[in-house]
Design brief:
Layout (H helix, E strand, L loop, with lengths): L11 H14 L7 H14 L3 E5 L2 H11 L5 E4 L5 H9 L3 E4 L22 E7 L8 H11 L2 E5 L7 E2 L2 E2 L6 E5 L12 E5 L2 H11 L3 E3 L2 E2 L10 H12 L1 H19 L6 E2 L6 E2 L5 E4 L3 H13 L24 H9 E4 L7 H13 L2
Parallel strand pairs: 2-3, 2-4, 4-5, 5-8
Antiparallel strand pairs: 1-9, 6-7, 6-13, 8-9, 10-11, 12-14, 14-15
The protein binds pyridoxal-5'-phosphate (PLP).
Length: 358
């Protein structure tokens, strides 16, 4: 079976070393030494101002919305994983969908201003597939209308924009460290921000609002993560350069094998973005072709995935708003298998099957 993704796993010995230390200390969670070490090493590796390690990327989004006490309307992308929208709705805000760019698949900044009303409080955009949004254009609009900017950077470990990690942009950026991601902690996520006070506030939100064992500075939730998850993160960080280089090589192999095929649309990388090669989406001509290609791949025990379907503006629990570009891409896009141990021969076979079945 060739699934769309497989988690990277360090050797058991590497993980065991951390387990031995956990057993010795008997400190399993609540801001333990491995959580602290992971945050420090992430900060160094990514060169970011503040990072808080969290239980998952969905809570990271919820905390980002909560910390600004957002109300009213939040402008967002319809082309993302469902967590981007559900975090907005969960925090009692209304998602307002702005259609995407047909080539980068990210929110189209030229359509944002017409969606702004007096109820708009923020823009929450996803750097989808690890490809940065047009960050400068979004910042210009946000500054002009005094809006907060939150980036769902769930896919973005290793992505840079204008020579800086993409996590340094926006008022807050969120990441997912789920097992399917390039860098993972089994389950996990993070919020990043430049402002120290904001980081302190998010720290309170992460830990029930505790300012001491008996005092509470704000409402809070349990978004902490454990020593066991931090241990996996530390092991994966030891291999991250190799993971990123391998991913780039694999991505470029798919690209070289499919570039000449005009019936398939490939992702356009945003100008200024140093891509992390996290996903390899292909857009087919229509849904019938997508089904045909998928069935042919399944026959060879290959499982591509429909990332992202449906277009989020069509979710049952949001006010439906037309987003024709996102709807069209959503109906036609699949991501090809991409993971550290994927073999060249498998990539060659996958592309052969695709081309034969167009
Ligand atoms: C774009 C995006 N945002 C948010 C999430 C949620 O992250 P998590 O699964 O860590 O809660 C995901 C998960 O895959 C995602 O793809």
């Amino acid at each position: 079976m060739i699934p769309v993704t497989k988690p990277f796993l360090p050797s058991q010995e590497e993980y065991q070393r951390h387990l031995n230390a956990i057993w010795n200390r008997q400190w399993l969670t609540n801001n333990g030494p491995l959580v602290n070490e992971l945050e420090t090493r992430l900060k160094e590796y990514l060169d970011t101002s503040n990072v808080l390690f969290l239980a998952n990327g969905t809570l990271a989004l919820q905390i980002a919305v909560k910390v600004f006490d957002l109300k009213g309307e939040v402008i967002t992308t319809p082309f993302s994983y469902v967590a981007t929208t559900s975090a907005i709705v969960w925090e009692n805000c209304r998602p307002v969908f702005v259609d995407i760019d047909a080539e980068t698949f990210n929110i189209d900044p030229s359509k944002i201003e017409e969606a702004i009303t007096e109820d708009t409080t923020a823009i929450l955009a996803t750097h989808v597939f690890g490809n940065a949004c047009d960050i400068d254009a979004i910042k210009t609009i946000a500054d002009k209308h005094n809006l907060h900017v939150i980036y769902d950077a769930a896919h973005c470990f290793g992505t840079k924009y204008k020579n800086k990690t993409v996590f340094e942009y926006g008022d807050v950026s969120t990441a997912s460290f789920h097992a399917t991601k390039l860098f993972h902690t089994i389950e996990g996520g993070a919020v990043f921000c430049q402002d120290n006070e904001l980081a302190d506030k998010m720290g309170l939100l992460r830990n029930f609002g505790h300012t001491s064992p008996v005092t509470f500075g704000s409402v809070g939730i349990n978004a902490k993560n454990s020593e066991f998850h931090a241990a996996m993160g530390l092991c994966c960080l030891d291999h991250i350069d190799d993971i990123l280089v391998t991913r780039k090589t694999q991505w470029q192999r798919y690209e070289s094998l499919l570039r000449a095929e005009k019936r398939i649309q490939l992702l356009k990388i945003t100008p200024g973005c140093e891509f992390n090669y996290a996903y390899f989406p292909i857009v087919l001509q229509d849904e019938a072709q997508l089904n045909k290609v998928t069935a042919a791949l399944n026959l060879q025990y290959v499982q591509p995935r429909r990332y992202f379907y449906p277009s989020l503006n069509n979710l049952s629990y949001v006010k439906q708003q037309p987003c024709p570009v996102s709807e069209s891409i959503s109906e036609r896009v699949i991501c090809l298998p991409l993971y550290h141990s994927l073999r060249k021969e498998d990539q060659d076979m996958i592309t052969r099957v695709i081309i034969k079945n167009l």
